Amino acid sequence: MSNVIQQDWRRTLQQGAIAGFISLNIAAIGMVEHFGERFLIAGLITLGQVAFLAAPLAFSYTTARSTMGQGRVLNTLLKAAAIGLVSSLFLIFLIWAAQTFDVRSILPNVSPTLIGLLTFEAGPGVGYIILLTVTVVTCLIAASSTFLQENVSKALFFGFGLTILVGSLSPNLVERVRNFFGQDMVRVLFESNALQLWPGIILAVASTILYFAYQRFSTSRPKTTSKPKADLTSRLLKQAPLFIILMSLPFFLGTYLTEVTNNVGIFLLMGLGLNIVVGLAGLLDLGYVAFFAIGAYTMGVLTSTGSLGLGLSFWVALPICVAVAAFAGIVLGVPVLKMRGDYLAIVTLGFGEIIRLIALSDMMKPFLGGAQGVLNIPKPSLGTFILDDPERLYYVILAGALLAAFISNRLRESRIGRSWIAVREDEDVAEAMGINLVRTKLLAFAIGAGFSGLAGAIFASKLTSIFPHSFNILISINVLSLIIVGGLGSIPGTVVGAIILVGLPELLREFAEFRWLIYGALLVLMMLNRPEGFIPSDIMRRELHTADAENPPPAS
Q: What is the model's pTM?
């Protein structure tokens, strides 16, 4: 028993050391200082301080979740305090080294500004105590949240998460608040482009209470046995507020935020298509950008008013773009029908590069423009009304996303959707049960490619010009990542993934140099702690948690 306890505590101290090492590296590369330029709460806490506290907080929470057995409360709190103590020692060492040696000759980002952020502007000495205390208290709070009921802890996470998000996006929100409510309201809510303390507290408390009430209401409602027609009517009435909000978003967001929303919508369209191919059918496609490029180039060639174009209308060309992309999906699907897993991923990756190189080649330059691309692509129009700004184009993207979500949802619940899921689970068993693998796989490739072609067609009209470098492999990786982070096989999860991985980086563009670092860290954390994604489908959640339920962690 003593050996088990020793191993358990050794693991806890290792986690504290890992958390401290992560925080030390985040500080040393300049991320804390750069993020420290943006206050979440005016004059109190910056985004940089949240950055170096994030690792010990996350490790304390996951350790508390895995701690079981007698004396769980005391054991959990002691472990959380140990993680906070050990991790803070790494940063204390960095502060001491910066004061004692010429650390900046080796680590130029270890500046006086960074030391001020780490010591909460109290200087060395007192700053050590403050840093250690804040880290330990933060870890204790994170661990204590595991003692609460699940709906309470979810409400608290939602409230504080929303407050951090609003604080992070304060510079983008100040202008919108000023436009709608005037400068006096800006002074009440914000100070120097940061959320003020009391509005932040009120936002956190109010959003926590509202989310908790929503959970209680949604779980306490009795299940009705109404007729299907009444069910359809109730569903439409429930979705009416969401539809009204979506239709009125450009009015509230303004030009810049609407442009960000349009980018999210285009990636959402691609995500919904890849969700069919990967999330439902289990066909790992790393060349998905190829269909995006095919849709964009088809739209460019058909509608461009330049020397390469045919001058067709956007609305005439749109279904042709979808059909061409879907046909390309079938062309790709035929030779890879027998391939699975890594082999399929490599072949589709090669297909994506082939399409990009064809668009770049001199052979196709008379038709696709080569490195010069296709120019003079007109914006969509309705008669003489041209959709030439983000607020107008938003409705085209919204219509495409709603149509794709509707088709995807109906397909998932249909016979072909169940066939896709069966193929994903086990191709041999699915074929033995009478499922036609050729037809099922080709339908997945074609429909997924059609959605990507639709996104590419809208993308070409949005930019009015397209070039081969816009269709590199990172597009495919981004789309695949957003459906994994959001939740494989889940439409709401795809929406959340697109907002997190496409929308937030656009809003936090001044931190773009750390985008891929945060991107990779988020993927690692998701795969370790929530592999099913933020909002997974019910099937995926059951699959990934059955093993955990059958093999619970040993008691400590």
A: 0.87
